[in-house]
Each structure stands twice: as structure tokens, then as C-alpha cells.
């Protein structure tokens, strides 16, 4: 059993490494050579992304900063995580607003550019670009911070909507899974992290979306994202997990379709 669990952990880590890329070792002006036009924090990220966003601001990694996110499948989890930490909101706040308030209170970071209407990765990208352009902010070089389970798909949305934009990916966190006392556990604590079940569900839901076939989000399917070539080892890891886990990926919610 432990050998099987170890193999499952290894396969999950293959998916995690692929889905959550970081193109630079850190989001600093020194690592980037010159500041980015803007860095966008996407609201689907857990709170670990806020720390990354704050550090990027502190190191002057960009000339402008934007938080993007209306309401979607991650909104209830974000609100619950913030409620645990004493942040309560009236009504139905956007993810962008919740992240903004958290950053303002925790780090005294004042983010004036918010995108609050999007409901999926496609509208995240289109609306974010529209806001930047409305403020005469160039979009030649952008940094994007999204939850590590969804970072690669967000980049594929950008490649579809704005193929001329040079992206710097920086997933909100990097973590592996290992076997602890006969159970799967994370190798280190991540602030605001998903439950293991939710994390696996998110990982397993991404490969079908990225696969460019009739059921995926690529040009041969829904045409929401640019074509993505999924490496064979990643496909093999996904197939192994399908065969050994009683967890299916997150289904698309039609309520958040554009």
C-alpha cells in the first residue's frame, strides 16, 4: 500500500510541476533585468499568492499592479479562508475586492486597479487587458500570478487572447505531496492551502481542460485557450492517477461560462 501511495504522490507531483510553472526564480527587478509593464494577481489563487504579489511590489518588479477576479468556483473557498482570519464581507464581494482588502490590511499595500466582473480564465484575461489599456498601461511584458493548479491554463488563455504579450509565469506557490504516516500530505505548509482532496480534484481537472480535443478548452474543443502540448510523462502520470484514485476532476460550472 505504501508503495502505491508513493507512486500516487510522485504522479501528483508531476502534474503539479507542469501545471504551476515559474519562469524566474523570484519576482524581483534584478531577476527580470527590467520591470514588467504590470503584474496581475488572479483571484482564483489561495492567499499564498497575496504574499508573492506583495513581495513583487516590494521589489519593484513591475510598473503597475492589478488584481483580477469576479466570482467563480474558487470564491467560496477564498471567502471562507478570509473569514477564518477575521475578514468578513457584506453582500457578494468579488475575489479582487477580497484580495485587495487582505493586502491592504496585512501589508498596507494599496492596489487601485481591480477587475471585478470576470467569471472564468477567458474573461479574467480579456477584462484585465481592457483595464490596463484603458489606463494607457502597456501590455508588452506582463507577470501573472495564479493558483499553481491553474497557472498553465491562465497562460494559455493569454496566448489565445493576446499572443503578442510576453508573459512571465509565477505560480502562487510550489509544493509537493509525500507520504506521511500512511497518508498523503504536503511537504511544507502553504498559507491558505486547499485540502488534499480539493487540491487533487483541481489537479485532475486541469489535464482534460488543457487537452486539445473535442472535450478540452483548446482550438479543437471549446476554443477558450491556445493549443497546449502536454508532455508524455504528464499524460502518463494523469492516466496512472485516473486508474488509482477515486477522485475525478472538477467539472465546469455552467454558471461561470462567458
UniProtKB/TrEMBL annotation:
Signal peptide: none
Pfam families: DUF218
Ranges where the DUF218 domain occurs: 37-166
Protein known as: Protein ydcF
Transmembrane feature ranges: none
Domain of life: Bacteria
Gene Ontology CC terms, in alphabetical order: plasma membrane
Amino acid at each position: 500500500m505504501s508503495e502505491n501511495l508513493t507512486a500516487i504522490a510522485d504522479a501528483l507531483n508531476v502534474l503539479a510541476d507542469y501545471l504551476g510553472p515559474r519562469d524566474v526564480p523570484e519576482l524581483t527587478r534584478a531577476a527580470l533585468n527590467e520591470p514588467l509593464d504590470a503584474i496581475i494577481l488572479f483571484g482564483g489563487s489561495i492567499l499564498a499568492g497575496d504574499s508573492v504579489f506583495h513581495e513583487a511590489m516590494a521589489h519593484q518588479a513591475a510598473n503597475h499592479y492589478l488584481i483580477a477576479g469576479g466570482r467563480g468556483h474558487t470564491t467560496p473557498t477564498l471567502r471562507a479562508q478570509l473569514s477564518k482570519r477575521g475578514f468578513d464581507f457584506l453582500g457578494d464581494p468579488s475575489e479582487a475586492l477580497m484580495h485587495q482588502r487582505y493586502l491592504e490590511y496585512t501589508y498596507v499595500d494599496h492596489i487601485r486597479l481591480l477587475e471585478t466582473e470576470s467569471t472564468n480564465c477567458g474573461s479574467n484575461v480579456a477584462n484585465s487587458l481592457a483595464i490596463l489599456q484603458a489606463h494607457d498601461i502597456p501590455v508588452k511584458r506582463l507577470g501573472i500570478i495564479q493558483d499553481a493548479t491553474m497557472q498553465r491554463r491562465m497562460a494559455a488563455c493569454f496566448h489565445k487572447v493576446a499572443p503578442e504579450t510576453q508573459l512571465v509565469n509565477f505560480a502562487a506557490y510550489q509544493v509537493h505531496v509525500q507520504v506521511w504516516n500512511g497518508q498523503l500530505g504536503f511537504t511544507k505548509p502553504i498559507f491558505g492551502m486547499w485540502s488534499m482532496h480539493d487540491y487533487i480534484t483541481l489537479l485532475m481537472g486541469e489535464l482534460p481542460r488543457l487537452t486539445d480535443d473535442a472535450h478540452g478548452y483548446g482550438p479543437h474543443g471549446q476554443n477558450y485557450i491556445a493549443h497546449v502540448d502536454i508532455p508524455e510523462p504528464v499524460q502518463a502520470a494523469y492516466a496512472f492517477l485516473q486508474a488509482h484514485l477515486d477522485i475525478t476532476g472538477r467539472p465546469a460550472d455552467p454558471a461561470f461560462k462567458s
